[in-house]
Amino acid sequence: MKKVIVITGAGKGIGKAIALDFAKATRTKNGFDPVLILVSRTLKELELVADECRRYGATADAMQADIADTTQIERLVDSTLQRHGTIDCLVNNAGVGRFKPLSELSEEDYEYTMATNLKGTFFLSQRVFPIMEEKKSGHIFFITSIAAEISFKSSALYAMSKFGQKGLVETMRLYAKECNVRITNVMPGAVYTPMWGEVPAEMQAGMMMAEDISGPLVQAYLLPQRTSIEELVFRPVSGDINE
Ligand SMILES: NC(=O)c1ccc[n+]([C@@H]2O[C@H](COP(=O)([O-])OP(=O)(O)OC[C@H]3O[C@@H](n4cnc5c(N)ncnc54)[C@H](OP(=O)(O)O)[C@@H]3O)[C@@H](O)[C@H]2O)c1
Fold first, then answer.
1. Is the CB of 116 under 6 A from ligand 1?
2. For residue 100, with 0-12 CB atoms within 10 Å meaning exposed, 13-18 middle and 19 or more buried, which class applies?
């Protein structure tokens, strides 16, 4: 089955791992034939991930777009529909974090965080949902965070944006249940990705890896449409990192 899957933030970190795990599932799971639309602001990274996905037999398009810009969201969705006819799955993974003490967070930090994590996630989901609603099938993943439920001292803006994303997840689920669309809230704790920058070795040892998240996400997608994994919660076995 051909499935058109849009993954935001697919150039690195968790999004890249999700793209590769979808690609690895090509044809091994009952003829699963993914068409991966890989999105971020950095085309070069996307092209490398797309090449890797194609080596596993998947179709992959690298599509540069800033989801904080609604014009670019329109262009992304329109060109996906023109090229592939539909969207079966949206992985809302693109996200940013500015981690500083409360008193040091600036207005620019606020605008930057909310533009991607809230505005971008909202308007992309709002644009894609009617496509799924009309055909009465589809799946939207939101990579929120455990920071959608628990706050850490240096993550005031990040937590605000992730609590906000959770509000969107819960609201969209009310619509999705009426039209056979699955919504999965993916809530990881600390995952070692470029988002963290340099981290000391002992801290890294207490973190999860991107593929720990992507594997179960792809399995959730490949379940029969009648079954929805509503939440996936991942924590480092030794507990949260309180940065
Ligand atoms: N790492 C963790 O510990 C952790 C834990 C829980 C939840 N999460 C969440 O998981 C998601 C992925 O995080 P990560 O750790 O993999 O981060 P990452 O390594 O920094 O990767 C983020 C990806 O999102 C893209 N992106 C950011 N802003 C974008 C925008 N406005 N438009 C399009 N693409 C954009 C980035 O590419 P460009 O910069 O090139 O656009 C990049 O490909 C985020 O939503 C994050 O909040 C992460």
1. yes
2. middle
